[in-house]
Structures are given as structure tokens and as C-alpha cells.
Amino acid sequence: MSTLTLDAAEKIVAAAHERARAVGKAVSVAVVDAGGFPIAIRRADGARPLTPDIARAKAYTAAIMQRPGKMLKKWQESQPVFFGQLSQLPGAALPIMATDGSVTIKKDGEIIGGLGIAGGTADEDQQIADDVLQSLGYELEFAAWGVAGRPAGKDV
User: Fold this and answer.
1) Which residues pair with 36 in a beta bridge?
2) Could you give the angle at the alpha carbon of 111 between the alpha carbons of 108 and 114, nearest 5°?
């Protein structure tokens, strides 16, 4: 069983801030473990004050829902009441956010955490997260909901 270490989380955060600077954005970055508990959260100089909380909620969502936020959008659109109630469950520590910039961290087929980026546009947050995780060797493919073992969008 793999775990996401503090050292690995700090590398993700540093790479995300470097990538964000390269595109001219001041962002906050949060990395949580598979249970949604924070490992590292950092707000860049100039990032808006609420962005650390948004980044943490995005990371939490990606970890506990075990799918990137963008994969949750259709579910949220089709069942908004149910989806909204997920954040109200007694065990929910943070809101569930079906949005870009919320990416599940997966290594060797195992979900080990979540990454949240906040401060750019939705597309920028997502691109920063994807670029960073891919550059560090994490997996970005996830099976569609209800389909065991086959990544979404892949015909095997």
C-alpha cells in the first residue's frame, strides 16, 4: 500500500507554484492524503485570501470521491439535490466540489490523495494540476463511474 509522504506533497506543491508562475498566476495549492486529511497547503504571494480554502476543498473532493472533480460534473448536474447533500453528511469535513482543479493523485493504480489548485480560471487550475501530476509520474486515467477497470474515454 502506497502513501503520500510530506516530501512528495511538498514536491507537488512546489511544482504547481512553479507552473502557475510560468503562466502568470498566483494560486493556492493543497495536497491531502487518501482520507482527505491535509498534508501541505500553500498560498502564493498575491493569491486571493479564499483560495487556500477552495484548494483544500478541491483536493478533499478528489481524494474522498476517488475521481477528479471534472468527472463529477455530470453527476452534480443530473442530481443537484443529492450531490449538494453530500457535503452535509456527518463525516464530510469540507464541501464536495465538482470542478476543475480538483485532481485525484494516483500511483501504481492506487489512489493516494488529492490535489487542489485555486486562483486561476477553471481551465488554468486544471491544466496546472494535470501538468504537475503528469510531470511527477502520477497517473491521470480513471475508470468511468460504474465501469470496473477501464479508464474513461479509452476503448480497449
Assistant:
1) none
2) 125
DSSP 62-94: HHHSSS-HHHHHHHHHH-HHHHHHHTTSTT--S
Going by C-alpha positions, the residue among 13, 11, 44 that lies closest to residue 30 is: 13
Taking only the tens place, the pLDDT of each residue in 5-54 is 999 999 999 999 999 999 999 999 999 999 999 999 999 999 999 999 99
The cell for 119 is: 486562483
How many Cα atoms occupy the beta-carbon half-sphere of 122 within 13 Å? 7
Q: Grid coordinates standing for 149?
A: 477497470
DSSP element (H, E) containing 41:
strand 38-43
* Cell reading at 103: 485532481
- The Cβ of residue 11 has, within 10 Å, a number of other Cβ atoms equal to 15
Q: Phi and psi for 41 in degrees, rounded to 5? A: -140, 130
pLDDT tens for each residue of 82-121: 888 888 888 888 889 999 999 999 999 999 999 999 999 9
Distance CA 96, CA 101 (A): 13
